[in-house]
Amino acid sequence: MISHRYRRSPVDAPGRKPRTTPAHNEHLPITSALPTGLETKDAESPVVLYTPSARRYNGLPEIDYPFHDRDALVTNCGRICIYRKKINISTVLAGQKLGIKEVDDGIWLVSFMHYDLGDIDLEQRTLQTIDNPFGTRLSPMC
Asked: What are the start and end residues of every segment in region (Disordered) (predicted)?
C-alpha cells in the first residue's frame, strides 16, 4: 500500500489536466464586492457595543422523567443499554438522558423531554420512530 505522502498529485497523474481550483489550504482574497455588514466608516464594531449580561447563566435544569419506568443515558456512539441489549438511538442525543417506559411485554416507549421519540422492541433491538415527534400538535377536530 502506498502511503499518502508518496501519492502522485493530480498534476503528475498521466492523462490528467492540472488542477484549476486552489488547494484547501490556499485562501482566496476577500473582495470588496462582498457585503461586510458595516456599510459606513462611522459604524462602531460589535466589540465596542457589546456589554456582558448582568444575569448569571446556571445551565439547564436536570431532565427528570417521573412517569417513566427508568432513565437511560445515551452513549457517545448513540446507544442505550436495556437488559444487556444495545439499542441504537442517535449520536445527536449522545450524553442526554432519555425516559423509557414499558408499554407492553418487551415494548418500550422512548421519550426525550416531553417528546415521544418511538418504541423499542427488545427482540429486534431497533427504535421504531414516530412519524414526526416534534411536529405541531393539532386537535383532530380542526
From this structure: 1-30
Distance CA 20, CA 18 (A): 6
Pairing label, strands 115-121, 107-112? antiparallel
Number of domains comprising the chain: 1
Quick one: CA dihedral 7, 12, 15, 16, positive or negative? positive
Give me the mean pLDDT over the 123-141 stretch. 73
With beta carbons less than 8 A apart as the criterion, state whether 120 and 130 touch: no
Residue 10 lies in a domain: no
Q: How far apart are the C-alpha atoms of 128 and 108, rounded to whole Å? A: 10
Q: Is residue 31 part of a domain?
A: no
pTM (global) more than 0.90: no
How far is the CA of 111 from the CAs of 40, 103, 138, in angstroms? 51, 12, 20
pLDDT digits (tens, 9 = 90+) for 89-100: 999 999 999 999
